[in-house]
Amino acid sequence: xxxxxxxxxxxxxxxxxxxxxxxxxxxxxxxxxxxxxxxxxxxxxxxxxxxxxxxxxxxxxxxxxxxxxxxxxxxxxxxxxxxxxxxxxxxxxxxxxxxxxxxxxxxxxxxxxxxxxxxxxxxxxxxxxxxxxxxxxxxxxxxxxxxxxxxxxxxxxxxxxxxxxxxxxxxxxxxxxxxxxxxxxxxxxxxxxxxxxxxxxxxxxxxxxxxxxxxxxxxxxxxxxxxxxxxxxxxxxxxxxxxxxxxxxxxxxxxxxxxxxxxxxxxxxxxxxxxxxxxxxxxxxxxxxxxxxxxxxxxxxxxxxxxxxxxxxxxxxxxxxxxxxxxxxxxxxxxxxxxxxxxxxxxxxxxxxxxxxxxxxxxxxxxxxxxxxxxxxxxxxxxxxxxxxxxxxxxxxxxxxxxxxxxxxxxxxxxxxxxxxxxxxxxxxxxxxxxxxxxxxxxxxxxxxxxxxxxxxxxxxxxxxxxxxxxxxxxxxxxxxxxxxxxxxxxxxxxxxxxxxxxxxxxxxxxxxxxxxxxxxxxxxxxxxxxxxxxxxxxxxxxxxxxxxxxxxxxxxxxxxxxxxxxxxxxxxxxxxxxxxxxxxxxxxxxxxxxxxxxxxxxxxxxxxxxxxxxxxxxxxxxxxxxxxxxxxxxxxxxxxxxxxxxxxxxxxxxxxxxxxxxxxxxxxxxxxxxxxxxxxxxxxxxxxxxxxxxxxxxxxxxxxxxxxxxxxxxxxxxxxxxxxxxxxxxxxxxxxxxxxxxxxxxxxxxxxxxxxxxxxxxxxxxxxxxxxxxxxxxxxxxxxxxxxxx
Length: 791
Description:
By secondary structure, the protein is α/β, with parallel strands linked by helices. It is built from 25 helices and 23 strands. The strands form four sheets. An eight-stranded mixed β-sheet has the order 14-13-12-11-10-9-22-23, with helices on one face. A hairpin with a 2-residue loop joins β2 and β3. The protein is globular.
């Protein structure tokens, strides 16, 4: 006989999870209080046990219940996040004080390798750091970059215990100010060769990822199907079932992201639910019912999670499905809210740092949305065809619940994804089924030509839907977090209410979401303009704004020409935080990666009216690549000549230098565009990486240089630029200097800083103050920056 564990409507695990999460947040940020928290847990547990014993039932006082879980969360957050973070900071400071010797770190690889040297990277869950002749505790998250001559990866893979030798340094500031600060420090480590990685042994995670590793090796065996196979079969198959997203074609990724459907392409909580549904369908066809069906579904979910490499989103969703199936097997069924609460409690007690993951927020938002909203949405839709309306209700429920978080974190309103979901989600399920058969064929050494053809056709169809959805997806300015939280609260209140209150809750949530999505970002100055050096590391990205106009000069980037995703992760968040959703002009001063790579994402994701560039040499083919992208996006391109002028709604850009003859030293740098931006009687000179030879030519022309308000210092403050004669001719009131923190070039040079100091020019540096903005308005100049950082 099946007996419910709880009375109708009871789900105590849900509020327990909420109190637990609150406690973890408080404990993670605390500096003391662990003994008091432990005492609170013990006393509240004793209180609940005493009350339950006296009353002879399981009822417990609400205050004791809340205190128990709040104290448990605080204890976990303090002991497993705050205290290790404090120890890691002390250990790192001790290591730095010991001199420039190579750092040796031991820990466990928390992710698979992505890419190949020099772009190979992974995440290390560090445990110890060798300082001198001793090893000190160092429980920290370290992003590892591998470059140089290396044997084939992986030397060690996810879950393996390793020892790394390289250069350890603190992670840079996050790209966006919207990001909630983490209570633990993050570090990055550069390892020059895989020979500096020693595999020390295995962990339980190593064994859990063995199925994934074996299937990936089978998938990676050479096959004779060419580029189409790599793009349409191998990459999507590796991402969809194995969680190896680095294997995807970058162009395909961009199209799915623009359409708000990237989650359909990678292992996620949705795919766990789809896998469970596929298993249920197969078992129904085979007429397997009852407990045998539940056991088979439980094994199918477990197998999917293992094949996916124990991917965190899959683990989160697998916990929910697994708990529901297990309680059914034990003939003790529980409500969906109770299963969600139990899974959250198990996950966050085991890994409290997951509370701070946006993936956790999205997973539980989607699951809660389906549990709370699918039925009300289904009741408002036609009843037939049942499969279509049911799929639409579930898809809309998940989209409604996750839309506020997606708008805040990724600035996207994916309206097209809502409409295509009833078709794209079933197609994703079919790809999971076909991909599983294809992986099985590869692992058994069987031919898979027919399955490859069908799978590739399905991927292309899904990509076609993503491209259509991209036409109805919009990037919006970053909304205020309290407003986003209020939308979620109103949705939950509506789902838990009845009658007019439900309607009012949903209507208010929809109206507030639309207000957040349609709101315009803050404009630039009505008179004059603002100029801001964006913190993009060792590179240049300068944003000029006036009214609702914007001009971007360079886009930053690493020195690896293949890293065109840099702009999406580093530059676009900054633009959207400032309310910039279109660009009147994008100007590339010269074709070097640290100036050009961020522009790929800017042109691909935002409306751009004009791409302007120097007439100098196209070193590395960056001009050609950007122009090809601009042609696909319908953006006109204009090579700038000496003396050209751009009139931009009351602003004027005058080109003082562009291209020219090739010089013996710094040839491409000295072909940079040097342009004067003027509006409202204020002026700023943009110099790219132009050096002293170009500066000398400009000084020699006489009238081309006049006193200005702002000088963007050339070539990141290198000693080869910003000559005394150049500064004397310009007499700038303030200078902007963009360079990376602790960069290997020694920028800015002491000689350059001394020259600027001699002429009493204050300098705002991105390596010391992060994003630096100057508002130039008639009669006043305002300075602002993001922070004060250690050099």
